[in-house]
Amino acid sequence: MLISTFGGKIPMLLKESWSNKRETGFTLLEVMVVLTLILLVVGLVFPVSGTLHQRLLIKLSLDQLEDDLLALRAQALGGGEVPVISFEPGQGYYRIEVGGRDLKRQLSGLVIATETKIDFSARNMSSTVLTFRSSQDVNYEVTFSDRGEPVIERK
């Protein structure tokens, strides 16, 4: 690139780019403050999301249990083979037995607290109570209405 000095004088455009004016950017202190704030926010959000995740798993397990109980009740009322559902204390699953077949259903985030075996041939299940305990020491009870529908309550 050919630079003309115009009689020994440097053009203004080039002179500005060679000057000692301060360059724009972030200082190390500014970058560290921003990173600290980001880490602080992330540190507060992730423990909360872990709790929310656990609560979501429990809700999904209870919804699945309710769906299974309703489906098994409908099958028993429909005159098909009578299903039996078994709950063993300390386990994180329950068993459904229908016609010699055995299905194991996982209870994510829950442990069975009371031993119960429900035979759906019984017409009155209102005295049946199932109790589950979450890892956060929250109890859930499943009872049955007069019509045999499951009712799930947090205790």
Order of helices and strands: HHEEEEEEEE
Major sheet details: 4 strands, antiparallel
Corresponding CATH architecture: 3-Layer(bab) Sandwich
The end-to-end span amounts to 82 Å
**Order of neighbouring strands in the sheet with most strands:** 3-2-1-5
- Low-pLDDT stretches: none
Structure description:
With 155 residues, the chain is an alpha+beta fold. The protein has a single domain (28-154), classed as minor pseudopilin epsh fold. The protein is built from two helices and eight strands, in the order ααββββββββ. The chain has helices spanning 12-17, 28-77; strands at residues 84-87, 93-98, 101-106, 110-112, 116-119, 129-134, 139-144, 150-154. It has a four-stranded antiparallel beta sheet, covered by helices on one side. A four-stranded antiparallel beta sheet has the order 4-6-7-8, covered by helices on one side. Strand 1 (84-87) and strand 2 (93-98) form a beta hairpin. The longest helix is centred in the middle third of the chain and has 50 residues, at 28-77. The protein is rod-shaped and about 90 Å long. The mean pLDDT is 83.
Quick rundown:
With 155 residues, the chain is an alpha+beta fold. The chain is 36% helix and 26% strand. Strand 2 (93-98) and strand 3 (101-106) form a beta hairpin.
